[in-house]
């Protein structure tokens, strides 16, 4: 062990603290909890095996997210021969429609997010959902900060277009639900 490599105990502590964020990122990439868990497990195993290449004092979260991202793309290349469902024909037949507006809105958002290009989806998830700075996201994606900013800007604009959002009035409950929640607001 060198001065720049953390002890096994320190590395384990840092790794365990990162698991919830890693799982959320894995789930957002794969879209399926089982695949996300497998992706997370592979990431942890690879990180543990390569812990000697991690330098103490650097951003372990960015290092782990990079491993996870690379593993995801490796798995996607391997699954290139699987039958695709780009129009969600098979998936929609298996899905149960949600009973509440929030759940339906989330489904709409997931579908819109899935329609973004891989680069845009990855950038917006890293910065908006995972809390990385533009600089950290650029490091994870191995690109310039300006590229990340551009991807996020285009992703936000595309999401607004796909979801039909024109302004703040498009957020929250519809008029009928609002009348039930706040009956005094409707005359």
Automatic annotation (TrEMBL):
Signal peptide: none annotated. The keyword Iron-sulfur does not apply. One of its GO terms (molecular function) is DNA binding. One of its GO terms (biological process) is DNA-templated transcription initiation. InterPro entries: RNA_pol_sigma-70-like, RNA_pol_sigma-70_dom, RNA_pol_sigma70_ECF_CS, RNA_pol_sigma70_r2, RNA_pol_sigma70_r4_t2, RNA_pol_sigma_r2, RNA_pol_sigma_r3/r4-like, WH-like_DNA-bd_sf. CDD domains: Sigma70_r4. Residues 108-159 form the RNA polymerase sigma factor 70 region 4 type domain. Residues 19-81 form the RNA polymerase sigma-70 region domain. Keywords: DNA-binding, Sigma factor, Transcription, Transcription regulation. SUPFAM superfamilies: Sigma2 domain of RNA polymerase sigma factors, Sigma3 and sigma4 domains of RNA polymerase sigma factors. PANTHER family: RNA POLYMERASE ECF-TYPE SIGMA FACTO, RNA POLYMERASE SIGMA FACTOR RFAY-RELATED. This is RNA polymerase sigma factor. The lineage of its organism: Bacteria, Pseudomonadati, Pseudomonadota, Alphaproteobacteria, Hyphomicrobiales.
């Amino acid at each position: 062990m060198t001065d720049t490599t953390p002890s096994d105990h320190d590395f384990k502590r840092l790794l365990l603290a990162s698991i919830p964020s890693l799982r959320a990122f894995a789930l957002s990439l794969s879209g399926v909890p089982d695949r996300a868990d497998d992706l997370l497990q592979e990431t942890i195993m690879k990180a543990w095996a390569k812990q000697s290449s991690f330098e103490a004092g650097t951003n372990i979260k960015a290092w782990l997210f990079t491993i996870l991202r690379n593993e995801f793309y490796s798995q996607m290349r391997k699954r290139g021969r699987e039958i695709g469902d780009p129009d969600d024909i098979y998936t929609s037949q298996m899905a149960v429609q949600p009973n509440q507006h929030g759940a339906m809105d989330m489904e709409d958002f997931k579908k819109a997010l899935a329609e973004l290009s891989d680069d845009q989806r990855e950038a917006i998830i890293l910065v908006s959902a995972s809390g990385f700075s533009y600089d950290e996201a650029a490091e994870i994606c191995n690109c310039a900060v300006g590229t990340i900013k551009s991807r996020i800007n285009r992703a936000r604009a595309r999401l607004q277009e796909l979801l039909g959002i024109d302004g703040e009035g498009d957020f929250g409950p519809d008029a009928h639900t609002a009348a039930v929640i706040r009956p005094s607001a409707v005359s």
